[in-house]
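Dear support,

I submitted the protein below through the web form. The confirmation email said the job was done, but the results page showed an empty box. After a refresh the structure appeared. I'm attaching both so you can tell me whether what I see now is the final result or a partial one.
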Amino acid sequence: MSFIKPFIFLVLAICLSSGCNTRFLGNKYPLTWEDNFDQSKTFDETSWTKIPRGKSEWNKYMTNDERCYEIREGKLILRGIENTNSEIDTAHYLTGGIYSKDKRYFGFGRWEIRAKLNGAQGAWPAIWLLPQGGKWPDDGEIDIMEHLNFDSIAYQTVHSHYTYVLDERENPKQGTTAVIDSEDFNTYAVEVHPDSLVFFINHQQTFSYPRIDTDKDGQYPFDKHQYYLLIDMQLGGPWVGNIHSHNLPVEMEIDWVRFYSFKDKEVRQRK
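What the results page shows now:
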């Protein structure tokens, strides 16, 4: 009937603007794993672990402190806060982060994460992938999303021996920025293929990083490992700048996480 096609296009337009379920949009890949954060008290510990503190800029304030974690109305809340109890922890700031290391890790497929990023001077929330059992930077890092301060853009970047050690960042281009709705939820995605990484924001392709012919080492390690997901609120560092305590606490809200596999035989997960 003549009204069917216009109706379908109208529904798709509404769906794209509201961040609805991508399976309704016709995702052609099987859904392998999802977490909707619908637990009552805390995140699913069979899939996630709190990120331990480290010596890098991104993880130097990571904590187990429950003030940095919450499940609220079907969303995971990760916070960056000023620490008011130095007797328990001497760090001036504390941040919450989780990863699926050793629990959920996958090969070729599409990762999607719907999240809202709330701004603060010095806030540096990130959603990214690291190789299960691999080493950095040789085995690659895939930054699905990084956000700075109050920006209305997100960064999407690739790291490897080729880009970091050899400093080859233009052939091919290492990353991009793209506009986000800084007041609402956005859907961030990356597809991991044998010959390319393809990035998206709100279902629109933003960037592609291809395998190229080169005699230089480590240009495309992303076909050699499964990858696990990290989601974390970070504070401070040379890139994002100084932290303004009066902007804290700052929250990162995660609505859901999904992974769609391209081929079952290329997907591995620990149950």
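Response: this is the final, complete result; the empty box was a page-load delay. The CA atoms of residues 114 and 187 lie 4 Å apart.
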